[in-house]
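Thread: histidinol-phosphate transaminase, structure

OP (GT): Posting the sequence first so everyone is looking at the same thing. Length is 210 residues per the record. Can we get the structure tokens written out before standup tomorrow? I want them in the notebook alongside the other entries.
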Amino acid sequence: SPGNPTGRVLALEDIEIILEAATGSVVVVDEAYIDFAPGGGAPDSKASAASLFRSGKYPNLIVMQTLSKAWGLAGARLGMAFMPEPMIDVFAKVKAPFNVSALTEDVVLRSLARPDLVDARVTTILAERERVAAALKALHPKILAVHASEANFLLFRVPGAKALCEALARESGVVVRDRGSMLHCEDCVRVTVGTEAENDRFLQALSKAL
């Protein structure tokens, strides 16, 4: 949450319904893209399931986040999991020893010391997301729908999505994802929001290919 490829945040009320119905199971909420949602991944965020820990009601909840997306540290391969203390004790017993290298620790600590850089990056991506969404909507009726997103990507519906993805890669070197095989995503394409120049290149290639 936000989900891939829809980009929509799952309402906390819905997560609570799942938690209360699955008291004999562990419920894991993947929040890899949460930094792009309203409120981000902060403990008091209205988007993040991490805020549910404050009630102390859900001993079966695990919330996972990553530094690979908004923080730009995919190469560090480091994420985090938030959970009640009894589950932390179990995970500590089974995790690999020395599973985070000293180099990774150094890079991550340097990044965590500059949250302002992440905030600026997210602000830029959100502005570009709205610009790209508006440009896609302007291509109607060739593009049938552009779905709202709370992540760093957009999902849009276009006839012949698979052929379009192949044409963009072959003719322009632009890679987008055909998501037509996923439930309720027939003829849907997912595009990641990049830099202004990358987004311009995508939009130009798309206009040419349609």
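GT: Both are above now. Quick notes for whoever picks this up: The chain is about 40% helix and 15% strand. The chain has two domains: 12-113, 116-209.
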